[in-house]
């Protein structure tokens, strides 16, 4: 996979996935102060060659156009949307001066030609999960890189230097996990973070949508789940329309939306609207009135899951659904005489991990029947569940991490790493450096094993974040993860990263994202709210 | 000092400083669900007695009025401003229904009578530093308490229960330190935090306005200080008009503004605009081109300080100025041959602490001549500087804290405690509990020594906060400090505090302050930005 973003008169864009090129009219040389070697590029592209030849961009004459021969044209709405978005990032509220279609001046970059050379010209599709499909997402990352090359000279004139960029991501799966159960996140907050994800070339929104504390997903099939299980049945739910909007907003930025409906644990809120779904816990020989994980011994449980995951498979277009499967507490199952009896009858004895596996195994079948792939947390693999070949194992435990990565990949499963990137764990100082230094392939695997590690995710669990503080807590700390997952393995210079990331965070601030500061500093345009 | 906020027909307000009372027309008993014993009161008043008799408040007929015989009337602008502010907090964007001056219904609270019984009726004054003067600030805290007693019943009707509150602060000095040098804070952010301070009954804004990284204070006398020393001479400065507005905004909320101009260390930014102010450091026998603390051996230094602090004394109406005096690095002084020669000539030998004291001693004289009191960080006391009797020592070092508190108060100096409340040090989880548990009088002092501890300050140093994240990082963590400094010493029940603080933080959110969550939870009205 190779993508080129080339611009200078004489450079030709040759790209497997996609290329953008620009054509300038004249090329009078202007020297500029470059600051850090790579300016404000974040994440760092795979190959960067910057010259000192600079061109100005005029808000009145600059154009982004589909190159001749491009497989995508004006009818490709995701491209047209992206053109508008990046024009606005570049020129903001620029007032028109003079004629709009005036002739370009000397030393001016008048046009960015975007040439899509992949065969896929279906611009109404959703970003795909495989590496071939992920080429589509390069539409956006190329434009992002272009926009990062534009700077203001000392007179405030937008400028860009003649440069050659060849780019592609090191890992195909670059995700952010947000948790909308522990605190409800207004749609506005989710959209803002999708914007920020695009600026950092993340391409997967792992939506941990429901959990113990609340069930904000409004299900058409089982509306009582959110009516009873949400913090509030109207103000704290995601309606089908909300979900559709979030998915479309993400699609327009090349971002997949992978929903997680975590079971059999983490389901307290499910029990409020769905009778008999959870296991009744016992105190001695009588029910205590509390409930445990999903009850795995009732047929009604699987009837329910069948219908729910059928709906989910229709609501969420992504090829994958995350089934959770983490942190199942066995105490309630142990206390329940019906569970014990069933386990005896089915020869499971006292092995509750086997009971959990029994449940997950059936759920995996239900999901496979909807033609979706399954992502699961590592415990499901650890417990010996027979996983489908296309299952993706999400490794999240810090202890024994390298062994786990080895084992999962040795078993031939695709793996996503989250363990080093639990961004809800805050500490004083520049903890982004710790996230930056984490290396996904830092375990003793073969080349074949390494290839199974398709990426990672930065996770911001919701205990301590809501709409008041989520965005500045996530950015630019997640940006560090973004570069680790995108750039070449040897991009590890922490000082160079600091310089680029400081500028990148000010760029996010200028674009309206309240990304917090790395350290004592200032931005030319401080965040002023909105 | 005693202030009473009493409301119920038969209760009579008797208060030394101030009293508010209300009069209701009828008093039909309505039972309400009280939740936590003290509802959402924060900080907890000194005496609270809540009944189950409830009254409704109507946005169209409810009035806040000056009681008969009150020493403050309609011409008192701070009171009128406060009435408007609290009316808006209570009723938000309530649409008028029916006639505005309709007759109050049964079970309705129609009027809050505010009776000011202190002699001081000068509503144009600034909040004072002494305990007598601080009675004025009770105008606001009484209204805040009243507003905290109002709740919405299940039909959304504003209601209040008949209650008796007697209230006064345990400590008279309850401050928040914000640092506008490491990151510039837009005025909007400072004002929002002054609002939040009032909601938490803080009454001192300790404005650490300049420091090494930048000098945003625009001095009329020495404009080059900010022209050269600010991050940007126009966009990152506080003009005289800005400062005046901030002081007035604070005054209208009973908040003092104590500016800190920290010297002789922490002054790198000063050197950019003021030639010869800082000590040239030497590398061997030649100047290295870098600079150290303020140069204490030049007369020009004191001429400069004389003029600057004269201006400061005029710009800032508060009775105190904070002179800093912390963390002076002696290395540069040690390297400089002129300093060494001068010390030899003046019999200081190699005792650089004495040199620092020489400087501070002269500065204290300069400030005393402007009729202002001085606050200083603890090192000034530790170094044996002869302090004026009214100096206030600010204790900030965590190690040896109890000994320091003992020594400062044993020497007869008024003390303010900041050490346990450095809120820039973040950690995972509910660190507000640590701040809450810190007890200012937790050292073995006599009663007389205890009385010298007039309060404390929550400090949010600026390395890692700016306008993107400051407000949610400060609140409600600083609220924990607020209750410790306001409420009785035995108010230490962490579960009760959690319950009240959770509601208080949602109230702050509803009032537009993005106060972050304590833990997994929801607010009826989530923060939606603005």
Describe the structure.
Chain A has helices at residues 77-91, 138-149, 187-199, 224-229, 240-251, 268-273, 299-315, 331-335, 337-345, 352-369, 378-382, 401-410, 432-437, 447-452, 470-474, 477-486, 494-510; strands at residues 3-7, 18-24, 47-56, 63-66, 109-116, 151-152, 158-167, 173-179, 204-208, 256-263, 278-283, 286-294, 320-324, 373-377, 392-395, 414-417, 453-460. Chain A is an alpha/beta fold. In chain A, strands 8-9-10-13-14-15-16-17 form an 8-stranded parallel barrel, surrounded by 5 helices. In chain A, strands 1, 2, 3, 4, 5, 6 and 7 form a 7-stranded mixed sheet that branches. In chain A, helix 12 links the parallel strand 15 (392-395) and strand 16 (414-417). The first copy, chain A, is elongated and about 85 Å long. The two termini of chain A are 40 Å apart. The relative contact order of chain A is 0.12.
Entry keywords:
17 helices, disordered N terminus, 530 residues, homodimer, alpha/beta, seven-stranded mixed sheet, 20% strand
Q: How would you concisely characterize the structure shown here?
A:
The first copy, chain A, is of the alpha/beta class and 530 residues long. Chain A is built from 17 helices and 17 strands. The first copy, chain A, is elongated, with a radius of gyration of 25 Å.
